[in-house]
Inverse folding.
């Protein structure tokens, strides 16, 4: 191990030891962090003891979005190995809460303990995994070293290379990544960066979100089919924030839009709902029936994916602030999309724009032009919708490829 890596290890472990001591105190004053610190130890304590008669896969994802990428892989692994024990860890409350909702798929869920050497050793003894599966970039040094020391294969899928690593930090991260048995990257640039670190080729596969989206659409079916309208176009304004709502509602007036809008606030608090109701006449989803006419305002969470099935077009929120939300879900329904200009963190945005499936709108006037030229033009709407779906379908199949490789890896591990 290089001297620079040893030095960074010393600094890192000092920081992790400090974090382990300080997080509970900080958590008492920080609402989101308290969601973690108040239950972290209890969740680990409730983990069922390892049963070596069953193969065990430990899957880790940073947050809810990354865990969603792992779900199609875990579902296929469960189908191929019905007796496998699947333990999932996350680092964020949203990730853990989502893992707990997947109780029919996974066996245990917990927060990943703070990355100290002692915690990593404890975790390996408690879980005794036969394979470690990590999504994207969330490799924690001491847990990786502990697994590697025990000869447990570590596989990273949907990998993206760290963007700010340089100098000693890059060398230290490269040493961590070299402990992995294999890695697949989502873009050529990510693969090239990781290959330089590893000294070996890194294959590129489209990320598994496309598989997850299509799996969820098939599972959702047509439960809301009775709410579909044919007398005019329906727009779903999904994961919207106030500026999205303001821009789209003004554009509907400017364009003389005669269709229906289903507004799905990102956070349907009472304040957010009233803000919409002050600007447009609408019926709350909880009060609507299939016979309800006019615009709808969704006042509960967990509805958006199914509602896209009712849409002829979608505006995806977040593009005027935090960053545009998931474009893959509405695209998979084969409908044209629009959003605000903040698309920097959305990997699907640029290819969807290139395919003319996504329109960037910076003002209500540009949005009104999209309504007139795309949403209200059946031919153009279908052309752009087909392009959106073709993009998603063309990126499916990675989960099956990865599962084949994971099965070969765990079979080899169990044979030793």
């Amino acid at each position: 191990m290089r001297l620079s890596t040893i030095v960074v290890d010393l600094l890192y472990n000092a920081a992790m030891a400090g974090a382990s001591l300080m997080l509970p105190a900080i958590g008492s004053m920080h609402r989101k962090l308290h969601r973690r610190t108040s239950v972290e130890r209890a969740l680990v304590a409730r983990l069922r003891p390892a049963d070596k008669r069953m193969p065990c896969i430990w899957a880790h994802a940073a947050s809810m979005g990354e865990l969603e990428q792992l779900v199609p892989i875990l579902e296929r692994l469960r189908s191929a190995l019905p007796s496998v024990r699947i333990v999932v860890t996350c680092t964020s409350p949203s990730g853990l809460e989502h893992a707990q909702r997947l109780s029919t798929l996974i066996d245990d869920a917990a927060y990943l303990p703070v990355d100290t050497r002692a915690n990593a050793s404890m975790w390996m003894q408690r879980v005794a995994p036969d394979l470690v599966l990590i999504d994207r970039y969330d490799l924690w040094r001491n847990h990786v070293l502990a697994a590697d020391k025990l000869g447990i294969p570590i596989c990273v899928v949907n990998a993206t290379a760290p963007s700010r690593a340089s100098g000693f930090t890059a060398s230290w991260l490269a040493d961590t990544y070299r402990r992995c048995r294999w890695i697949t990257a989502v873009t050529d640039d990510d693969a090239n960066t990781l290959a330089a670190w590893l000294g070996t080729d890194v294959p590129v596969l489209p990320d598994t979100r496309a598989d997850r989206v299509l799996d969820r659409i098939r599972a959702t079916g047509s439960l809301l089919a009775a709410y579909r309208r044919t007398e005019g176009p329906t727009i779903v304004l999904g994961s919207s924030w106030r500026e999205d709502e303001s821009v789209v509602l003004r554009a509907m007036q400017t364009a003389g839009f005669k269709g229906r809008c289903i507004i799905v606030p990102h956070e349907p608090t009472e304040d957010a709902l009233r803000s919409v109701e002050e600007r447009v006449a609408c019926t709350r989803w909880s009060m609507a029936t299939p016979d309800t006419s006019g615009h709808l305002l969704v006042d509960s969470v967990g509805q958006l994916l199914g509602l896209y099935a009712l849409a002829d077009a979608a505006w995806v929120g977040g593009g005027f602030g935090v960053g545009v939300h998931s474009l893959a879900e509405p695209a998979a329904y084969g409908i044209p999309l629009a959003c605000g200009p903040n698309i920097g963190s959305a990997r699907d945005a640029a290819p969807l724009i290139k395919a003319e499936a996504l329109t960037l709108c910076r003002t209500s006037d540009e949005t009104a032009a999209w309504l007139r030229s795309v949403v209200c033009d059946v031919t153009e709407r279908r052309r752009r919708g087909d392009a959106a779906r073709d993009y998603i379908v063309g990126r499916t199949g990675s989960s099956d490829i990865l599962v084949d490789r994971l099965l070969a890896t765990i079979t080899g591990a169990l044979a030793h």
